[in-house]
Design brief:
Elements: H1 20-31, E1 36-39, H2 46-53, E2 58-63, H3 70-87, H4 91-97, E3 103-107, E4 114-118, H5 127-143, E5 146-151, H6 162-173, E6 181-184, H7 188-196, E7 207-210, H8 217-229, E8 233-234, H9 238-244, H10 250-262, E9 269-270, H11 275-296, H12 299-311, H13 319-325, H14 330-342, E10 346-349, E11 352-355, H15 358-367
Parallel strand pairs: 1-6, 1-7, 2-5, 5-6, 8-9
Antiparallel strand pairs: 3-4, 10-11
Bound molecules: adenosine-5'-triphosphate and magnesium ion.
Length: about 375
Amino acid sequence: MKNPFAYGRVVEGKDYCPRPKLEKLLAEMLVSGQNVVLHGERRVGKTSLAVRAARKKRAVYVDFLACNDAGEVTERIVKAAMKAASNAGLLDAALKAFASLRPKVTVDPDTGAIGATLDMRPSDLNIGSVEAALEKLGELHKKKPIVVILDEFQDVLRIKESKTALARMRSVIQFQGDLPYVFSGSAREKMEMIFSDPDSPFFKSAITVEVAAHEGGAFQRFLAKKFSETKRKVGGGLFEAIHDMGVTVTGDVQQLCWAIWFSSEPGETIGEDSIEGALDTIFQIERSKYEDAVLNVSATQLKVLVALARQGGERIYSSDFKRVSGISVVGSITKAVQRLEELRIIYKHKNEYRFANPFFGVWMRTQFA
Ligand SMILES: Nc1ncnc2c1ncn2[C@@H]1O[C@H](COP(=O)(O)OP(=O)(O)OP(=O)(O)O)[C@@H](O)[C@H]1O
Ligand SMILES: [Mg+2]
Protein backbone atom coordinates (compact mmCIF):
# COMPACT_ATOMS: atom_id res chain seq x y z
CA MET A 1 0.00 0.00 0.00
CA LYS A 2 1.25 3.46 -0.85
CA ASN A 3 2.58 5.76 1.85
CA PRO A 4 -0.20 8.21 2.72
CA PHE A 5 2.05 10.68 4.59
CA ALA A 6 4.02 13.27 2.66
CA TYR A 7 6.95 15.03 4.28
CA GLY A 8 10.07 16.87 3.23
CA ARG A 9 8.47 18.51 0.22
CA VAL A 10 5.84 21.02 -0.73
CA VAL A 11 2.41 19.44 -0.35
CA GLU A 12 -0.70 19.96 -2.41
CA GLY A 13 -3.96 18.22 -3.27
CA LYS A 14 -4.88 15.38 -0.94
CA ASP A 15 -1.55 15.72 0.89
CA TYR A 16 -2.48 19.24 1.96
CA CYS A 17 -4.49 19.76 5.14
CA PRO A 18 -6.47 22.97 4.64
CA ARG A 19 -5.94 25.94 6.93
CA PRO A 20 -8.95 27.97 5.83
CA LYS A 21 -8.43 31.12 7.91
CA LEU A 22 -4.83 31.61 6.93
CA GLU A 23 -5.50 30.80 3.29
CA LYS A 24 -8.37 33.26 3.15
CA LEU A 25 -6.31 36.01 4.75
CA LEU A 26 -3.43 35.47 2.40
CA ALA A 27 -5.60 35.10 -0.70
CA GLU A 28 -7.39 38.37 0.08
CA MET A 29 -4.10 40.20 0.45
CA LEU A 30 -2.82 38.80 -2.81
CA VAL A 31 -5.95 39.70 -4.73
CA SER A 32 -5.53 43.29 -3.65
CA GLY A 33 -1.90 43.32 -4.76
CA GLN A 34 -0.55 43.42 -1.24
CA ASN A 35 3.01 42.16 -0.71
CA VAL A 36 3.32 39.66 2.11
CA VAL A 37 6.18 38.20 4.09
CA LEU A 38 5.61 34.81 5.63
CA HIS A 39 7.35 34.23 8.94
CA GLY A 40 7.47 30.85 10.58
CA GLU A 41 9.74 28.09 11.79
CA ARG A 42 11.12 25.48 9.49
CA ARG A 43 8.76 22.88 8.07
CA VAL A 44 5.59 24.51 9.36
CA GLY A 45 4.22 24.73 5.83
CA LYS A 46 5.11 28.22 4.56
CA THR A 47 5.86 27.21 1.00
CA SER A 48 2.85 24.92 0.70
CA LEU A 49 0.61 27.68 2.04
CA ALA A 50 1.99 30.27 -0.36
CA VAL A 51 1.57 28.02 -3.37
CA ARG A 52 -1.94 27.09 -2.31
CA ALA A 53 -3.07 30.66 -1.69
CA ALA A 54 -1.70 31.78 -5.05
CA ARG A 55 -3.37 28.89 -6.87
CA LYS A 56 -6.34 30.74 -8.30
CA LYS A 57 -4.04 33.22 -9.86
CA ARG A 58 -0.86 31.81 -11.29
CA ALA A 59 2.09 31.27 -9.01
CA VAL A 60 5.51 32.16 -10.32
CA TYR A 61 7.49 30.20 -7.78
CA VAL A 62 11.14 31.22 -7.45
CA ASP A 63 13.42 29.44 -5.00
CA PHE A 64 16.48 31.46 -3.95
CA LEU A 65 17.93 28.65 -1.84
CA ALA A 66 21.76 28.80 -1.90
CA CYS A 67 21.88 31.28 -4.75
CA ASN A 68 25.37 32.72 -5.02
CA ASP A 69 25.26 35.60 -7.47
CA ALA A 70 23.04 37.93 -9.44
CA GLY A 71 23.27 35.66 -12.49
CA GLU A 72 21.74 32.76 -10.60
CA VAL A 73 19.01 34.95 -9.19
CA THR A 74 18.16 36.21 -12.68
CA GLU A 75 18.13 32.74 -14.13
CA ARG A 76 15.88 31.39 -11.40
CA ILE A 77 13.36 34.18 -11.90
CA VAL A 78 13.27 33.64 -15.65
CA LYS A 79 13.00 29.88 -15.24
CA ALA A 80 10.04 30.24 -12.89
CA ALA A 81 8.38 32.72 -15.23
CA MET A 82 8.71 30.38 -18.21
CA LYS A 83 7.26 27.51 -16.24
CA ALA A 84 4.28 29.54 -15.09
CA ALA A 85 3.77 31.07 -18.55
CA SER A 86 3.82 27.63 -20.11
CA ASN A 87 1.16 26.42 -17.66
CA ALA A 88 -0.95 29.42 -18.60
CA GLY A 89 -0.49 28.96 -22.35
CA LEU A 90 1.53 32.17 -22.51
CA LEU A 91 4.94 30.83 -23.37
CA ASP A 92 5.28 32.80 -26.60
CA ALA A 93 4.31 36.04 -24.94
CA ALA A 94 6.75 35.35 -22.09
CA LEU A 95 9.58 34.61 -24.49
CA LYS A 96 8.94 37.94 -26.14
CA ALA A 97 8.73 39.83 -22.85
CA PHE A 98 11.98 38.34 -21.57
CA ALA A 99 13.79 38.53 -24.95
CA SER A 100 16.55 40.86 -23.70
CA LEU A 101 17.64 38.18 -21.24
CA ARG A 102 17.76 35.59 -24.05
CA PRO A 103 15.97 32.69 -22.37
CA LYS A 104 16.22 29.21 -23.84
CA VAL A 105 13.33 27.04 -22.83
CA THR A 106 14.23 23.58 -21.58
CA VAL A 107 12.08 20.50 -21.15
CA ASP A 108 13.01 17.89 -18.57
CA PRO A 109 13.08 14.58 -20.50
CA ASP A 110 11.80 12.58 -17.54
CA THR A 111 9.06 14.79 -16.16
CA GLY A 112 8.30 17.07 -19.10
CA ALA A 113 8.74 20.04 -16.76
CA ILE A 114 9.43 23.34 -18.45
CA GLY A 115 12.43 25.38 -17.37
CA ALA A 116 14.88 27.83 -18.91
CA THR A 117 18.53 28.72 -19.15
CA LEU A 118 19.89 32.08 -20.21
CA ASP A 119 21.93 32.24 -23.36
CA MET A 120 24.23 34.90 -21.96
CA ARG A 121 27.79 35.11 -20.71
CA PRO A 122 27.84 34.98 -16.90
CA SER A 123 29.82 38.25 -16.93
CA ASP A 124 26.88 39.95 -18.65
CA LEU A 125 24.57 39.04 -15.81
CA ASN A 126 24.54 41.45 -12.91
CA ILE A 127 22.18 43.23 -10.56
CA GLY A 128 20.82 45.07 -13.59
CA SER A 129 19.64 41.74 -15.02
CA VAL A 130 17.84 40.92 -11.77
CA GLU A 131 16.03 44.26 -12.08
CA ALA A 132 15.21 43.51 -15.71
CA ALA A 133 13.82 40.07 -14.83
CA LEU A 134 11.58 41.55 -12.12
CA GLU A 135 10.35 44.24 -14.51
CA LYS A 136 9.41 41.57 -17.06
CA LEU A 137 7.34 39.81 -14.41
CA GLY A 138 5.31 43.01 -14.34
CA GLU A 139 4.73 42.69 -18.07
CA LEU A 140 3.64 39.10 -17.68
CA HIS A 141 1.23 40.16 -14.96
CA LYS A 142 -0.44 42.59 -17.35
CA LYS A 143 -1.22 39.74 -19.74
CA LYS A 144 -2.64 37.49 -17.04
CA PRO A 145 -2.53 38.07 -13.29
CA ILE A 146 0.26 36.27 -11.46
CA VAL A 147 1.52 35.99 -7.90
CA VAL A 148 5.28 35.96 -7.45
CA ILE A 149 6.59 33.78 -4.63
CA LEU A 150 10.20 34.47 -3.70
CA ASP A 151 11.05 31.56 -1.43
CA GLU A 152 14.12 31.27 0.79
CA PHE A 153 14.42 34.96 0.07
CA GLN A 154 17.02 35.48 2.82
CA ASP A 155 19.58 33.83 0.58
CA VAL A 156 19.77 37.05 -1.45
CA LEU A 157 22.06 38.06 1.39
CA ARG A 158 24.59 35.54 0.04
CA ILE A 159 25.24 37.46 -3.13
CA LYS A 160 28.01 40.04 -3.28
CA GLU A 161 26.84 43.57 -2.58
CA SER A 162 23.57 42.20 -1.33
CA LYS A 163 22.54 45.55 0.08
CA THR A 164 22.71 47.17 -3.35
CA ALA A 165 20.92 44.19 -4.83
CA LEU A 166 18.12 44.47 -2.27
CA ALA A 167 17.81 48.21 -2.80
CA ARG A 168 17.49 47.82 -6.54
CA MET A 169 15.06 44.92 -6.31
CA ARG A 170 12.97 46.96 -3.93
CA SER A 171 12.95 49.92 -6.27
CA VAL A 172 11.45 47.79 -9.06
CA ILE A 173 8.96 45.99 -6.83
CA GLN A 174 7.57 49.16 -5.25
CA PHE A 175 6.40 50.44 -8.61
CA GLN A 176 4.66 47.20 -9.54
CA GLY A 177 1.49 48.29 -7.77
CA ASP A 178 -0.96 45.44 -8.12
CA LEU A 179 1.55 42.64 -8.73
CA PRO A 180 1.64 40.74 -5.41
CA TYR A 181 4.84 39.24 -4.04
CA VAL A 182 5.08 36.64 -1.29
CA PHE A 183 8.45 36.59 0.45
CA SER A 184 9.11 33.48 2.42
CA GLY A 185 12.14 32.03 4.12
CA SER A 186 13.16 29.54 6.74
CA ALA A 187 15.99 31.54 8.38
CA ARG A 188 13.92 33.75 10.59
CA GLU A 189 16.62 36.11 11.80
CA LYS A 190 17.80 36.89 8.31
CA MET A 191 14.26 37.44 7.09
CA GLU A 192 13.75 39.82 9.99
CA MET A 193 16.94 41.62 9.07
CA ILE A 194 15.54 42.24 5.60
CA PHE A 195 12.02 43.26 6.56
CA SER A 196 12.27 44.66 10.08
CA ASP A 197 15.59 46.50 10.16
CA PRO A 198 15.11 50.21 9.52
CA ASP A 199 18.36 50.24 7.52
CA SER A 200 17.16 47.61 5.10
CA PRO A 201 15.65 48.67 1.75
CA PHE A 202 12.78 46.24 2.34
CA PHE A 203 11.97 47.68 5.78
CA LYS A 204 8.19 47.52 6.28
CA SER A 205 7.64 46.88 2.58
CA ALA A 206 5.33 43.91 3.12
CA ILE A 207 2.72 42.83 5.63
CA THR A 208 3.90 40.04 7.90
CA VAL A 209 1.81 36.91 8.23
CA GLU A 210 2.84 34.43 10.91
CA VAL A 211 2.60 30.80 9.93
CA ALA A 212 2.44 28.51 12.95
CA ALA A 213 2.51 24.72 12.92
CA HIS A 214 -0.77 22.91 12.34
CA GLU A 215 -2.48 22.00 15.53
CA GLY A 216 -5.83 20.98 16.86
CA GLY A 217 -8.64 18.76 15.70
CA ALA A 218 -8.62 19.37 11.96
CA PHE A 219 -5.01 18.28 11.51
CA GLN A 220 -5.51 15.25 13.78
CA ARG A 221 -8.56 14.21 11.77
CA PHE A 222 -6.55 14.67 8.58
CA LEU A 223 -3.83 12.37 9.90
CA ALA A 224 -6.28 9.85 11.37
CA LYS A 225 -8.00 9.61 7.99
CA LYS A 226 -4.67 8.78 6.34
CA PHE A 227 -4.24 5.93 8.82
CA SER A 228 -7.77 4.66 8.35
CA GLU A 229 -7.57 4.81 4.57
CA THR A 230 -4.65 2.42 4.83
CA LYS A 231 -6.46 0.18 7.29
CA ARG A 232 -4.94 1.34 10.57
CA LYS A 233 -7.11 2.50 13.41
CA VAL A 234 -5.97 5.34 15.63
CA GLY A 235 -6.36 4.67 19.34
CA GLY A 236 -6.72 7.36 21.97
CA GLY A 237 -3.75 9.39 23.12
CA LEU A 238 -1.59 9.02 20.02
CA PHE A 239 -1.46 12.65 18.99
CA GLU A 240 -1.08 13.88 22.55
CA ALA A 241 1.88 11.54 23.01
CA ILE A 242 3.49 12.83 19.81
CA HIS A 243 3.06 16.39 21.00
CA ASP A 244 4.40 15.63 24.47
CA MET A 245 7.56 14.17 22.94
CA GLY A 246 8.31 17.59 21.48
CA VAL A 247 7.29 16.69 17.93
CA THR A 248 5.07 19.67 17.19
CA VAL A 249 6.05 21.08 13.81
CA THR A 250 3.76 20.05 10.94
CA GLY A 251 6.43 18.41 8.79
CA ASP A 252 7.92 16.51 11.75
CA VAL A 253 4.51 15.18 12.79
CA GLN A 254 3.98 13.95 9.22
CA GLN A 255 7.40 12.29 9.26
CA LEU A 256 6.65 10.49 12.51
CA CYS A 257 3.24 9.40 11.23
CA TRP A 258 4.94 8.01 8.16
CA ALA A 259 7.31 6.01 10.37
CA ILE A 260 4.42 4.72 12.50
CA TRP A 261 2.57 3.72 9.37
CA PHE A 262 5.67 2.07 7.92
CA SER A 263 6.32 0.10 11.10
CA SER A 264 2.72 -1.13 11.40
CA GLU A 265 0.47 -3.60 9.63
CA PRO A 266 -3.04 -3.25 8.21
CA GLY A 267 -5.63 -4.05 10.86
CA GLU A 268 -3.47 -2.72 13.68
CA THR A 269 -4.64 -0.15 16.19
CA ILE A 270 -2.12 2.63 16.46
CA GLY A 271 -1.48 3.99 19.92
CA GLU A 272 1.17 5.52 22.08
CA ASP A 273 3.11 2.26 22.14
CA SER A 274 3.49 2.34 18.35
CA ILE A 275 5.81 5.32 18.65
CA GLU A 276 8.88 3.46 19.86
CA GLY A 277 9.17 1.24 16.80
CA ALA A 278 8.59 4.24 14.59
CA LEU A 279 11.42 6.11 16.25
CA ASP A 280 13.72 3.15 15.59
CA THR A 281 12.83 3.40 11.92
CA ILE A 282 13.69 7.11 11.89
CA PHE A 283 16.91 6.57 13.83
CA GLN A 284 17.98 3.87 11.40
CA ILE A 285 17.65 6.32 8.54
CA GLU A 286 19.10 9.35 10.28
CA ARG A 287 21.65 7.92 12.72
CA SER A 288 24.78 8.77 10.73
CA LYS A 289 23.59 12.37 10.47
CA TYR A 290 23.18 12.54 14.26
CA GLU A 291 26.60 10.99 14.84
CA ASP A 292 28.20 13.54 12.54
CA ALA A 293 26.49 16.36 14.42
CA VAL A 294 27.75 15.04 17.75
CA LEU A 295 31.30 14.69 16.41
CA ASN A 296 31.29 18.16 14.91
CA VAL A 297 30.37 20.20 17.98
CA SER A 298 32.72 21.19 20.80
CA ALA A 299 32.72 19.46 24.17
CA THR A 300 30.83 22.36 25.79
CA GLN A 301 28.28 22.50 23.00
CA LEU A 302 27.74 18.75 23.38
CA LYS A 303 27.12 19.16 27.11
CA VAL A 304 24.54 21.82 26.37
CA LEU A 305 22.86 19.60 23.80
CA VAL A 306 22.67 16.72 26.26
CA ALA A 307 21.17 19.03 28.87
CA LEU A 308 18.67 20.40 26.35
CA ALA A 309 17.67 16.85 25.46
CA ARG A 310 17.23 15.87 29.09
CA GLN A 311 15.94 19.05 30.69
CA GLY A 312 14.22 20.87 27.86
CA GLY A 313 15.25 24.33 26.76
CA GLU A 314 13.03 26.66 28.74
CA ARG A 315 15.38 27.49 31.60
CA ILE A 316 18.93 27.23 30.37
CA TYR A 317 20.38 29.27 33.25
CA SER A 318 18.58 27.37 36.01
CA SER A 319 20.55 25.44 38.61
CA ASP A 320 19.09 22.18 37.25
CA PHE A 321 20.35 22.96 33.77
CA LYS A 322 23.77 23.87 35.12
CA ARG A 323 23.92 20.66 37.10
CA VAL A 324 22.84 18.42 34.26
CA SER A 325 25.14 20.10 31.76
CA GLY A 326 28.01 20.35 34.19
CA ILE A 327 28.57 23.94 33.09
CA SER A 328 28.30 26.54 35.82
CA VAL A 329 29.41 29.63 33.92
CA VAL A 330 26.45 31.44 32.37
CA GLY A 331 28.64 32.96 29.62
CA SER A 332 29.73 29.50 28.47
CA ILE A 333 26.13 28.35 28.17
CA THR A 334 25.23 31.49 26.21
CA LYS A 335 28.15 31.05 23.84
CA ALA A 336 27.42 27.38 23.21
CA VAL A 337 23.73 28.07 22.61
CA GLN A 338 24.55 30.85 20.14
CA ARG A 339 26.87 28.61 18.19
CA LEU A 340 24.35 25.76 18.14
CA GLU A 341 21.78 28.20 16.83
CA GLU A 342 24.14 29.35 14.09
CA LEU A 343 24.71 25.74 13.16
CA ARG A 344 20.91 25.41 12.97
CA ILE A 345 21.01 22.46 15.36
CA ILE A 346 18.70 24.32 17.72
CA TYR A 347 16.36 27.29 17.36
CA LYS A 348 14.49 29.55 19.72
CA HIS A 349 10.71 29.23 19.89
CA LYS A 350 9.20 31.86 22.16
CA ASN A 351 11.25 31.43 25.33
CA GLU A 352 12.38 27.93 24.65
CA TYR A 353 15.36 26.45 22.82
CA ARG A 354 14.35 23.47 20.74
CA PHE A 355 16.09 20.93 18.60
CA ALA A 356 15.68 21.86 14.93
CA ASN A 357 15.23 18.15 14.33
CA PRO A 358 13.17 16.86 17.27
CA PHE A 359 14.10 13.26 16.50
CA PHE A 360 17.75 14.16 17.06
CA GLY A 361 16.71 15.42 20.50
CA VAL A 362 14.95 12.15 21.31
CA TRP A 363 17.94 10.17 20.08
CA MET A 364 20.28 12.25 22.26
CA ARG A 365 18.08 11.38 25.22
CA THR A 366 18.44 7.68 24.50
CA GLN A 367 22.20 7.90 23.95
CA PHE A 368 23.14 10.17 26.84
CA ALA A 369 20.58 9.13 29.42
N1 LIG B 1 -1.07 22.17 4.78
C1 LIG B 1 -0.36 21.08 5.09
N2 LIG B 1 -0.97 19.90 5.25
C2 LIG B 1 -0.28 18.79 5.57
N3 LIG B 1 1.03 18.76 5.76
C3 LIG B 1 1.71 19.91 5.62
C4 LIG B 1 1.05 21.13 5.27
N4 LIG B 1 1.97 22.09 5.18
C5 LIG B 1 3.16 21.52 5.47
N5 LIG B 1 3.01 20.20 5.73
C6 LIG B 1 4.08 19.24 6.11
O1 LIG B 1 5.27 19.97 6.31
C7 LIG B 1 6.26 19.63 5.32
C8 LIG B 1 6.99 20.89 4.91
O2 LIG B 1 6.13 21.76 4.19
P1 LIG B 1 6.67 23.09 3.49
O3 LIG B 1 7.87 22.75 2.67
O4 LIG B 1 5.53 23.75 2.85
O5 LIG B 1 7.11 23.91 4.78
P2 LIG B 1 8.09 25.16 4.89
O6 LIG B 1 7.67 25.89 6.11
O7 LIG B 1 8.16 25.89 3.62
O8 LIG B 1 9.47 24.38 5.17
P3 LIG B 1 10.97 24.93 5.02
O9 LIG B 1 11.23 25.70 6.28
O10 LIG B 1 11.78 23.65 5.00
O11 LIG B 1 11.05 25.73 3.78
C9 LIG B 1 5.48 18.95 4.22
O12 LIG B 1 6.27 18.03 3.51
C10 LIG B 1 4.38 18.26 4.99
O13 LIG B 1 4.84 17.09 5.58
MG1 LIG C 1 9.76 26.36 2.37
